User: Fold this.
Amino acid sequence: MSKAAVNMLGMTLAVDLKPQGVAVGLLHPGFVATDMTAKYHGMDGVIGPEQSADDLVRIMTTQLSMETTGTFWHRNGSVLPW
Assistant:
């Protein structure tokens, strides 16, 4: 599934689940330092997986609500435009 299709799925879920009281957040983890970024991009990434995961959990627990369902966030807390 392409990134565009995943984004569309997230938005569709946000619309479909809102009447049931389920909020959906879409997340960008940032450029995470993993074996894959090193192997395929020749780079180390700018943040470790643990820090990225902590940031994403913080966003979901402090910013996700029924009013913000369907929002696309970067791990640094900024809202990314569609």
The longest strand covers residues 26-28.
